[in-house]
Automatic annotation (TrEMBL):
Domain of life: Bacteria
Taxonomic placement: Bacteria, Bacillati, Bacillota, Bacilli, Lactobacillales
A molecular function GO annotation: hydrolase activity
UniProt protein name: HAD hydrolase-like protein
InterPro entries: HAD-like_sf, HAD_2, HAD_sf, PGP-like_dom2
Disordered: annotated span: 52-73
UniProt KW keywords: Hydrolase
Length: 73
């Protein structure tokens, strides 16, 4: 069998992986008592690579110190 074509889904048209990405971030951040909302994700992280998101991590604003949550990993 010869492959005649390949489909790349780089913009989420065929598979919406953004909600999966949000759920992963939300679950990881919840382990550190950080409430990560869909609104926050949509405004600041959706459509960006994981590397860019790690460079702009959410802050724990309700904490006595504003450490980046991702620095815990």
């Amino acid at each position: 069998m010869q492959i005649k074509s390949i489909i790349f889904d780089l913009d989420g048209l065929l598979i919406n992986s953004e909600i999966v990405s949000f759920e992963i971030y939300k679950e990881l951040l919840a382990q550190h008592q950080h409430n990560f909302t869909l609104e926050n994700y949509a405004q600041n992280y959706s459509g960006r690579s994981s590397i860019l998101n790690m460079e702009n991590p959410p802050k724990k604003t309700d904490s006595e110190n504003s450490k980046s949550v991702f620095l815990l990993y």
